[in-house]
Amino acid sequence: MVQAKVKETYYISHGSPTLSIDDSLPARGFLKSFRDTVYGGVQRPPPTSILIISGHWETNYPAVNAISGTCDTIYDFYNFPQEMYKLKYPAPGAPELATRVKELLMASGYQKVSVDKKRGLDHGAWVPLMLMFPDADIPVCQLSVQTNRDGTYHYNLGKALAPLKEEGVLIIGSGSAVHNLRSLSLSGDGSVASWALEFDTWLKDALLDGRYEDVNHYEERAPHAKAAHPRPDHFYPLHVAIGAAGENAKAELIHNSWQLGTLSYASYKFTPTE
Question: Source organism's superkingdom (predicted)?
């Protein structure tokens, strides 16, 4: 079978862990339909493997997991419904992809890249993947983020990984477009905090206009940047996805919804222009 290239990259907002079970969340329906409505359906060959960058794995230097056999499902959340702790996403690991990621990063000047042969998939990886590719038959490798660095660093990280697309690898950044757990609204009225909406709108406009440098320097250029992301862990996967797509990539908003007033599920597709 001819190996299919994957041109585009994605940034998926995974929001709350309850995305794994809560059918009332529009983002859950979106992700369940992803393969058919966004990725191209059964007529498109599946990726050879998936590289997912989750905001829930933070390290001082880039790290990849290289699992031989089935990836463990990590329940890195607390005091949630018991049924969530019974969910499994037994995807095969992708040790060959982990080796390739390390090679590409070191060739691009990243002097230290760690390989973890034990760590499975955290919920920033398995929750969206469980919905997007429920058969769990595509090998998965996870890459960490470095919250001691900045957006440009992660954009360049993505640029170094761009050749993987030619090898059939699907690159997904998984975080949340707005992620402030300290300001969640429990009112239940569906309202969105004004500052959160303003940041989310700025981000959408910047991405759709191709102003990726503005996004790389969002701390100085975006309204309410610190409120939208008190910590950058859930935002840096976006920068990796943009960098891996290429300098002239076109952004497309593929989903937008909210939960608890300050959790944005805005998700994007990045496609290189010919």
Answer: Eukaryota
238 contact partners, CB below 8 Å, separation of at least 6:
11, 173, 175, 177, 215, 268
User: In this model, does residue 1 exceed pLDDT 50?
Assistant: no
pLDDT digits (tens, 9 = 90+) for 146-181: 999 999 999 999 999 999 999 999 999 999 999 987
Q: Give dist(CA 153, CA 177) in Å, integer.
A: 18
**Reported pTM:** 0.96
DSSP string, 10-46: EEEE--SGGGGT-TT-HHHHHHHTHIIIII--TTSPP
Residue 273 CB neighbours (<10 A): 10
Reading across the β-sheet that carries 49-58, which strands appear in turn? 114-116, 63-65, 140-145, 49-58, 169-175, 9-13, 267-271, 250-255
CA distance 12 to 167: 22
What's the confidence (pLDDT) of residue 274?
Answer: 67
Q: How far apart are CA 43 and CA 170, in angstroms?
A: 16
User: How far is it, in rounded angstroms, from Cα 79 to Cα 63?
Assistant: 28
> Helix, strand, or coil here: 106?
helix
Please, are residues 270 and 241 in contact by the beta-carbon 8 Å criterion?
yes
Backbone phi and psi for residue 267, each to the nearest 5 degrees, phi listed first = -130, 150
Tokens for 165, please give them. 């697309």
Characterize 237-264 residue by residue with b for buried, 16 or more Cβ atoms within 10 angstroms of its Cβ, and e for exposed.
bbbbbbbbbbeebebeebbbbbbbbbbb
Residue 200: the pLDDT is 98
- Continuous segment of H or E residues that includes residue 175: strand 169-175
